[in-house]
Structures
1.
Amino acid sequence: MIGRIAFFLLVGTIALGACALVFDWRVTLPPDLAAAIGWREGLSDEQLVDADVAWYVNDEKIRRKVDDAVGREDATDAMLWLDMARRLNIPVAGGLEAAAYALKAREDSLETQFSDYVSGFVTGSSDSLAGLAGAVTSDLTVYGDLRDIVGEGGKMLAGEDYSEFILGLSVVGLAATVGTVATGGGGVVVKAGISFVKFAKRAGHMTAAFAARLTRLAGDAVDLPAFKQTLRRLDLTDPTGSWKILTDYAATVRGARIFDVLGKLENIREAVGTTEALRLLKRMEKIEDVDDIYDVTKAAGKRTRGVLELTGKSSMRAIKYTANVLQILFEYVWALALWVGGLVAAILLRVTISAWRLGRWALRRIRRNRARHAAASLRLSTR
C-alpha cells in the first residue's frame, strides 16, 4: 500500500517539477535570507565565479599569498594575488603592494627583454616572455616553422632522435600559413597557438601527458611518413622549388581537432597573459582540460589560475553546479517537501488504518469473550 502511494507521489512530483521548469514556478526569498544562503539567481558567469571564490577565501589567506609571492620574488604570482585582493575588496599593506610592483618593474626591464626577444626569434626557445614574443614573431613570419622543419626533419632523415611534437606542429603551422585548411579561429590565431605550445614544450612548461596528446592530434592532421618522403625531395640550394614542394604537401594536411585546440590555447593566452597561460598549461593533462579552462578564462580572465587554486575546481561546469545547488534546492523545495510530506502522510495513514483495524479486532475479541462469559454464566444459573 505504502509502496503504491510512494510511486504515485513520485510520478506527481516529477510532473509538478516539469511544470515548474516549463512555467518557471519559483519560491521568492526575502533579500536578507537570499544573501545569507548564497542565492545566485540571475548572476553572470563572472559574478558566479566571484561568488564561488568568496566561499573559499578570507583576508588573511590572500595576504599570505601576496607575501609569499613577494618573498619568492615571483612577480607573476604577486600581481595575481594583488588582483584577487582588489576584486574581493581585501586590503593589502601599502609596503607589500609596493614590493610587488617593484618586482614587476624589474621583470619588465627593456634591456633584458630585448636580448631575450632576439634569442627567442632565432632559436624558438628562451626562459622569458620576451623570448616567447620572439618565438611567436618568427613563427608568424614562417621562419620559425621552416627552421624547425629543416632542423627536426633533418634529424628524421638521418635516423637520429627527433621531436615528433615539434615537427608535426611545424607542418601544421605551415598548412595554417598557406591557408590550406579551415583553422577555426583563423590562421594567425592558430599559428600563435602553435608557437606558444612549441615554446612551452621546450621550456618545460608542459606535462608529458598533454604533449603526447597534442602529438597524436598533430598526427591526425599530418602524415609524417609521407612527409619524410617529401623532405627527401627538398634542395636547400633551390629555395623557390623547396617552398613549392612544402606548400604542395601542406595542401594535403587534413582539417582536424588540433586547430580548434590550438586556437583555444591562444585565446587562453590572450585572456590571462603569457606567464599565466604557461602556468595553466602545467595543469593540463587531457585535451578536454583545454575546453574546461578556456570556459573559465572567459569569465575569470587574468584571475583564472587564482580561481582554480582557491576553489579546487577546474571547469565552469563545476563552478556553476556548486553555485546553483542551493538555488535549485530552494526554488523547488516545495516539490521536495511535497514528496517527503506525502510519504510521511502515507505512513501515518497506514499506521492509523492499521491501528483502527487492530482496535476493531481487539474490540470484537473483547465482545466475543464477554458473550462467552455471559453464556457460561447463564448455563450455570439454569442448572
2.
Amino acid sequence: MANNDVAVRFNKVSFEYGHDKPILEEASFSLRRGTKMTLMGQNGAGKSTIFNLITGALKADDGSIFVDDRLKIAYAKQVIPREDLDLTVKEFFEKCFDEKIYSIDPKIDAVLEVVNLSAPHDKIIRAFSGGQQARLLLASALIQNPDLLILDEPTNNLDKAGIAHLTSFLIGYQKTCIVISHDADFLNSFTDGVLYLDVFTKKVDQYLGDYYVVVAEIAARIEKEEMKNAQYEKEIIANKEKANFFANKGGKMRLVARRMREKAEEMEEAKVDVRKEDQAIRAFTIPSQPELSGDLLKISSLTVIINHHPYPKDANVGLKKNQHLLLAGPNGIGKSTLLESLAVGKAAGAKIAEGVRVGYYRQDFSTLDFDDTVYESLASVMGGSDEHKLRSVASGFLLDKKIMNSKVGTLSEGQKGLVAFARLVLQEPGLLILDEPTNHINFRHLPIIAEALSKYEGAMVLVSHVPEFVEQIRIDEILDLEK
C-alpha cells in the first residue's frame, strides 16, 4: 500500500508499561485514508494505548509508527479528564487548541448542534450528566475539524436518541475514523473492518468487512486453528511414542528415534498461536445485607432538569427487599444527580431506612480512590479481614496478582468497572444504586452481570440506556422522569 493512501501504519511495534506489563509485541497493521475501523480487544488489552501511540502521547519501545503528518488528529477519550471537570464549556473548548481562537462562540454553537446538545457556554462541565459529557467529548474532537477522528467508547452514557444521532453522523462522515465500542449494532452500521488486539499474543489482526461478518470470520478462524493444532498434537504424541520405542532398541534405531523427536519438535513450532476467546468473568452473587425489613428506600419527591432548569416533581416510590426500580429518562434530565443524592443521603424528597448499607456504582468511578492499590480498594469495603474470600472474589473478576498490586488509577476503564463490581460483592449492601453499569465493560461479561443483578435480594435502583441489558434483569417498577 502506497504511503499516500495510508493514514496510519504500525510496523512490528512493541510497547510495555514498565518491565512487567507488555501491551504490544511486534504488532503490525495499516489504516487506509477514508476508512472507518473498529478496534476490538478484551478489557485491559491496551486498546486506548494504541490510540495514545497514534497521537504521539506515548512512544513505541521498538518498531516504527507512520502517521501521515498532513493529518489533523482529534481524540475523544472515554471520559472527560478530572482536571477539566471544573472548566466552563467555553474554557473546555478553548483547551482543544494550542493557539487562541478568536470568536470561538459561534464555532462552539455549531459543533454542539452537530452532537444535538444545547449548553450555555458558562456552565461548568461537572454539572452536565454523563450522556451530556459524552456529547461534549465528541464535540471537542469535531471542533478541531480532524482528518483522523479517534473515538473511545463514544456511546457510553448516551441515550437511544444520542446513539441514533451519533450513528447517523458517522455514516455520513467522509474522513478517517477509528472507534472502540462494545455496542455491536452501533459498530455494524458504519464500520469497514476490525483491528483485533489479542490480549494473549499482544499482536493486532486486521479484518475487512462489516462488524458481524468479521466476528463470524474470527470465530471460524479460531475453530480452524484449533482443529489444525489438534491434528499436530496427535502427530506429535505419535512421533514421541515412536521415538521412545526406537531409542530403546539401540544401535541405528537411535538415529531413527532422533529424527522422530526432531519431527515432533518441528510440529510443535508449526502449531499456530490460537487466539483464545476473551475470558468472561465468573458467575457471581451480590449478597444482600441480612435482617432488613420494611421500606428500605422511600422517594416522595425529586427534581427533574428541563433545558438546564430544575423543576420539582412528586413521586410515590417505596422499595423493600428484593424490589428493583428502573429510573428512566433522556440524558440530562437528572437521573445521575438523583442517584448521587440518594447515595450520599442528601436527596430532599427521599429517605433511606436507618442502618441500610448502600452500594453505589458510579459511571465515572469517582467512588474509587485512584491512589489505592486494587487490593486496598477491595479490602476497604469488607466487613472483616478474610484474605481468602477477598482474593477469590477478585479472581472471579479477572483481577490477578499483578492487577491487585496496581493502583486503581492505572487500570483501564473496563478494569475499574470490574473492581467496582468486586467491591459490591464484598460490601454486601442492602440497597444497590447503579448508574450505567455497562459502560466500558466487555460485552462477554454483561449477561453474567445481568443475571447477578436479577438475583440480587436487596432493594435496587438502576439507570441504564442499554435495552438489551435491561431486558435481562428483573425489574419490578419503572420511574420515568420524563413523564
3.
Amino acid sequence: MATTNTERENVAADDELTKARERADKAEAELAALKSNTKAGSTGGDTHTGDTDTTDTGTGNAHAAKTRTIELDADVEKDDGEKELRKDSMMAHLLDSLDAGKDIGHYGRLVFAMVARHFLSHDEVLGWLTRDSDFDEEKAEAMLSQVESRGYNPPKRERIMEWQHEQEFPILPHPSDPDCGNLYRTLEFPDAVYHHIEEYREAKTHSDE
C-alpha cells in the first residue's frame, strides 16, 4: 500500500509540475508578444522555471515582468509627451516654472491646461498644475475638467499675447520671437483639433454671410 501511495503522489506531483510549466510557458509567450516592439525582450527569461517543482514561481515572475514592462511603457509615453511640449519655448518655460513651484497666473495655468491635455494624461496635467504655489488640487481639477468638457482648442499666439497683459507672470518668455507661443507651428496636435478648428471656421463663415 505504501508503494501505491508513493506512486500516486509522484504522478500528482508530475501533473502539477507539468501544469505549472504550461502556465509559465503561456505567460512567457504573452510577455514576448507584449514586448515584441520594444528593446526589452530579454525580460522573458524571468518566466523560466528550470527544474523547480514549485507551482507559482514561473507565473509569478512572468506577471512581475509584464507589470514592469507596462510601467516602463507608461514612463516612455509620459517622457515623450513632455518632450513634445518642450518643442515650444513657451511650453518649456511653463513646465520649468511649474517645476520650480512658481505661480504662473490664471492665464498661464489655463494655457498650460489647454495645450498639455493633448500630450499628457489627465492625472499628469493635474500633477503639473498643482506644482503651482497658488493652485491646489481642487482648483486644478475644476479648471482642467472645464477645459476638457468644453473642448477648448489650444489658443492662438494673438490670444496668448492678450492674456499676457492681464497678469504679471510672463506667459511668453520671448514675446519678440514670432515662433514663441505659435503653438500650431511648433507642436503637432491630434487630427481632431484641426478638424474642430475647420468646423468652427466654416460655421463662422456661414454665420457672417
